[in-house]
Structure formats: structure tokens, C-alpha cells
Amino acid sequence: MTAIDAGSPDAAQDPAPVRGWLAILAVTLGIFALMTSELLPVGLLTPIGTALDLTEGTTALMVTVPGLVAAVAAPLVTVATTRIDRRLVLALLIGIVGAANLASALATSFAVVLLARFLIGISVGGFWSLAGGIALRLVPERHVARATAVVFGGVETASVLGVPAGTLTGDLAGWRTAFAAVGVLGLISLACMVIVMPKVAPQRTLTFADLPRVLRTGRAVRAGIAMTFLAITGHFTAYTFLRPILHDDGVADGMISVLLLVFGVAGVCGNFLAGALVATRLRQTVCGIGLLLAAAMAAVATVGHDVPSAAAILVVWGLAYGAVPVTFQTWMLNAAPAATEAASSLYVSTFNLSIALGAFAGGLAVDAAGPVSVLWIGGALAVLVAPLVTVAGRRQP
């Protein structure tokens, strides 16, 4: 999953469980802060655009820029830091996130905001790629699976709870306060990592040649990349503009925050539900994600948006999206069990590239054809996930 592995000669053979779990929680807090930073503009698109006098499509560059940068940074940071203590690298990356969010909160021009978002993209790509396999080095072997799930829970929780919480903070105290709060959270995570995490020296070396090599290992790997691209691009094409869509239909700003929180709670439930299913029903879970995402987007486009109906639709959407990270990560690791470092790096790159492309394509569609258009585009992409499961072969990877 990263350029680290169990059994480093300078690591204890049986890490101390208490300190190891504290380190796992520090990493989880860091990845929560990182992913919340990347996605925070989704819930604050309208107030940021109004304050900086930007169109909604232009404001969406705050999502596009870090996504594109993270897609490139995931393999670059992993390979470039392959011989450096992982604790040092992770601490540096999360420190950058804290500083960049504070800079966004104080920025008086959109150029400064985009520069801060560029730095966040570097941190997101590098941190996520390295953090995925850190549990191998921090906790005893019998706890590795559970600890890895906790770390990825930080990604999921940020996606489905961090954005609603940030949106609510922005509605109550202004969008700058929301960015400042995430910046402080990043600095708190930095302090926690410095205090509780032991040195984690890398053992294996990952090279750029490993990345294309893993794509040639089988159809399941290529299908996993394609499914991730379709599901995440489709989701963010529509979800990035969910706030203006609901606002145009007469839903009050305060209720939009509540609805995003409903989406988040449903997403956490979807994460746990998928975690229980992927071991034995991986293919079916992937198909269900694509179909539910498409159905939810179509429903938002066609059903009247009173608060109860919008809440019901967002529960379905949240369940489906909440299942994405653990399901697709499991698919990739099962498809390339002998090359988990390279497979994880490609997955992180595809995930973040898809966030960027979804926000960018949605911005063009919104400015050209109105907000509802992104729902049909996103749904059309998501529904293509199910056929790709068949392309991957009848045998579960």
C-alpha cells in the first residue's frame, strides 16, 4: 500500500499496543483533517463565491486544483520519500495542511486561495498514500486489519461528516472560520503525531517502474481503476454543486447544512455496511454502489425538493458513497496482492484525479446548462460501474 512493510529491522517485533493505537488515532485524525480540507469548499461553494465575487464554476476550482495535484503527488511523494522516516514525512505533510488552511482563512484574493489549495493537494496525495499501510508498523499483527480500517475510516468520515460540519461552521460563523478551524485541527494532528508516533523507517523501495507494471497484472486491476474513476467522477460532478441545486429549489441555507449532515450519517452507515459485505460479496457491493449512486442523482433531478424527500434521497446517496472507499480499496488490494504499494498509489491518484475532473466538468456544465445538468452527467457515469464488474471477469478478484 505504501513503500513500507512489516518487519523493519529498526522496528520492534511486537509493537507496544497502547502507543501503537495512539499513533493510529493520530494518523486517522490527520487524514480526517486532510480530506476535510480537500472537500470543504463543496459545502461552502455559494458563500465563498459570493464573498470573492466568483461564479460557482470558477469557485469549484478550489476542489479541482487539490484533486489534480493530489493525483500527481500520490506516486511522486511515495517514491521521492522512499528512504525517509515515515513519521517525519507524515508530520511535514499535515503541518503544510494546517498552514495552508489558515492562509485560506486570511486570503484576500482568489490567487492566494488557489496557491493554498495547491499545497493541500500535495499533502493529500502524499499523506494518504503513505498512511494506508502504516498500521503494519505500529500495532501487533493481530490488530493490523482493524487498525487499517480505522485509518481509512478517517477518509470516509471526512468525506461524509467533515464537509457537513464545516458547512455548518461556515453558515454560523463564516467560511473563513471554517477554514481556520480545519487548519487548527491539522496543527493539533501534527502535535499528536510528534508526541505519540515512533520512528517508522521504510524497508522496501518503490520505483516509478512499479506503477505501470501493476496495471499489467490483470483485468481486475484495470477494471478497479476504471470503476473508481467512473464512480468518483460521477459523484463529484453532481455532489460538488448539491448546495446550489437545493438552494435553487427553495431549501433554506440552514436546512442544507442539516441535509448534508444526514448525508454524512448515512455515509458512515454505508462504510460499516460495506465493511461487512466486501469479504464475501465484493462484486455485488460494487454493482450496488454504482446503481444506487445513479438512482439517487436521478431522483434529486426529478423529485420535488421539500426537506423530507430530499433527506430520503440523500440517505440513499450517502449509503452508496459511504461504501466507496473501503469497497474499491479492497478490490484493488485483492486484485494485486503482490504489489499493494503500487496498487494503492494508483488508487489514490485515480480517486483524487476523479474528484478534480468531476468538480471541473460539473463547473463547466453548471455555467453552460444550469445546476440540474450535473445530476444527469454524474448519474450516467455512475451507472457504468456495474457493467465493468463483468468486464473484470466472472471470478471475484
Automatic annotation (TrEMBL):
Looking up SUPFAM superfamilies in the UniProt record yields: MFS general substrate transporter (SSF103473)
Q: Which residues form a coiled coil?
A: none
Q: Per the database record, which ranges form the Major facilitator superfamily (MFS) profile domain?
A: 23-397
Establish whether keyword Transmembrane is in the entry.
Answer: yes
Which first-to-last residue range defines the signal peptide?
none
User: Where, subcellularly, is it found?
Assistant: Cell membrane
UniProt xrefs under PROSITE patterns: MFS (PS50850)
> Membrane topology type, per the record?
Multi-pass membrane protein
Report the superkingdom from the record.
Answer: Bacteria
Question: Chief location of this protein?
Answer: membrane
UniProt KW keywords: Cell membrane, Membrane, Transmembrane, Transmembrane helix
Q: Which Gene3D superfamilies match?
A: MFS general substrate transporter like domains (1.20.1250.20)
Query: Can you tell me where the transmembrane regions are?
Result: 21-40, 60-81, 88-112, 118-140, 147-166, 178-200, 220-242, 254-279, 286-304, 310-333, 345-366, 372-393
Q: Which InterPro entries match?
A: MFS, MFS_dom, MFS_Efflux_Transporters, MFS_trans_sf
From the Swiss-Prot or TrEMBL record, give the protein name. Answer: MFS transporter
Query: Which organism does this record belong to?
Result: Actinomadura luzonensis
